[in-house]
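Holo model, 3-(2-carboxyethyl)benzoic acid. Inputs:
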Amino acid sequence: MATYPHGLRCRLVRSPEATPSGRHVLGRVAFLGHHSAPAVRAGASEIGIHLVGAEVERVTEVWETDSPVVSGMYQDLAYAHDGEYLFCAGQVPEGGSYREPVRNAYRAAFDLIGKLDYPHVMRIWHFIGDINRANADGMEIYRDFCLGRAEAVDHHLGRAGDMPAATGIGALGGGISWYLLASRSGRVRNLENPLQVPAPSYPHLYGPRPPKFARATSFSPPGIDGAGDLFVAGTASILGHETVHAGDIAKQCDVTLGNMAMVMSRENLLAHGIDDGRTLKDLRFVKVYVRRAEDLPVVRAACAAAFSDTAEIVYFTVDICRSDLLVEIEGIAP
Ligand code: 3EB
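Output:
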């Protein structure tokens, strides 16, 4: 990522213990063959998310900084912060209804953010077990999750409150594992995509309360002009508010990549008052979620053509929040 004081950086590594960087670790997100609860380990906060089959190589996303960190547990959340950045991770246990536990999890996170003074949330990820299945009341679990999240956002930020770029995706284990990044200073700007209806304005067709997230978030540290670090949200084959190309993985890849290119483009950044522009080749850390393992070769080929040879790209085979979506992609352009 760009070099600036207290630089926040991401690495995707196969074995974090074997590849120390000499920097301070805020958070480790291990993608594993099982869940492991949020905890503080060796001074950093850590969470394990069941996202890969037992036979697959594990990958860990490591969030690092230049300054020493202070870590701890707050309620069930594991956190670490360095005076400029906060990483925090939580896990909502598997259950029959997620509305209230999600509200509670968000309340704990907003409390922590307030208490420690990191008011600018720049990115959030949610990994949701059985995302397309019905909960105990017959509501799809993703919709149940969206309901709790929307109520939490109403309560803490007000009805018009906006949330940053997010990922809301399936997981192989049950419950909801999630983590976020926030900053004390700098500037967070949430971006929309002119090709897509803002998710918070989706019609009721997709659930009682819409998903609260932005298509991308620009984080500019103090003194940095332009987009700074651009976090592109989980992006799928949606135009307007509708899924397009149901059943066609190649076309869904094209639309997904087109949406990502548009949200990062100079045209779109200028429309949001940011004098900057990025392309797909600027993405450094890319996570690709593919519903059906048999689609992996097509998705890998599309990503290899679209992204830089030096981008770090990881693939997961998990369900996606709408049953007709076959692929979802997120990334960071530092
Ligand atoms: C979409 O655009 C696809 O609920 O937090 C992407 C990113 C999606 C985040 C979320 C959902 C979420 O609606 C799904």
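The pocket of 3-(2-carboxyethyl)benzoic acid is lined by residues 126, 166-168, 199, 211, 213, 233-234, 236, 238, 321 (CB under 6 Å). Helices lie at 99-116, 141-157, 249-264, 266-271, 296-306.
Archived with the compound record.
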